[in-house]
Amino acid sequence: MSLPPLAPVLDLFANPSAARRPSRAPLATLFAAALLATTAGCAGGLDDPERFTGGSNACATGTTGASVIQAQCLSCHSTDANGSAGGGLDLQAAGLPGRLYTTNAACNAKPLADSANPSQSFFLKKLTSSPGCGAQMPLGSALNAADTACVTEWLVAGKPSSP
């Protein structure tokens, strides 16, 4: 029985990095491919920051459904005005828009928001010229189309998840 030559084995002891070289090339290639794949789709700029910061497509830049409600509704429908104006509807207290799905309207005793079809909710119908009962909101000046779309998107996005 003959033993294998010792020269290749001794060479590995003299230069241990020689044993690792063959595995580095595929690893480096894999890393380079992964890096290229993750950066290939990057646009390099942020032309629409709202897309990444919680803004929405329906809302004007710098506007949210909550900010429209704050600016247009809280003068009557706030915690301070609760009971004295706004039919007892408090849009300032925590839990909106989810709370609208469990609160009934004063004029028809139906939920303000319809979980089966949020975009057809009474809360949103009150923003139109024919709300079904009561007056169009906000009193005195209707929301523009962009703000109405923004509030609609906000309400739909805030629909409670099914159990």
TL;DR?
Helix 3 crosses helix 5. The chain is 34% helix and 0% strand.
Fold and architecture overview:
The chain is an all-alpha fold and 163 residues long. It is 34% helix and 0% strand. It is built from five helices and no strands. The protein has helices spanning 7-14, 17-39, 65-72, 122-125, 145-157. α3 packs across α5 (145-157). The longest helix is centred in the first third of the chain and has 23 residues, at 17-39. The radius of gyration is 31 Å and the shape is elongated. It starts with 6 loop residues before the first helix and ends in a 6-residue tail after the last helix. Mean pLDDT is 76; it is low at 42-56.
Topology, pairings included?
Layout: H1 7-14, H2 17-39, H3 65-72, H4 122-125, H5 145-157
Major sheet: none
Strand segment tally: 0
Report low-confidence residues grouped into runs of 5 or more. Answer: 42-56
Rg, please? 31 Å
Structural shape: elongated
Strand content: under 5%
Nearest-integer average pLDDT: 76
The ordered H/E elements are HHHHH
- Helix vs. strand class: mainly alpha
Helix content: 25-40%
Tally of alpha and pi helices: 5
Distance between the termini: 75 Å
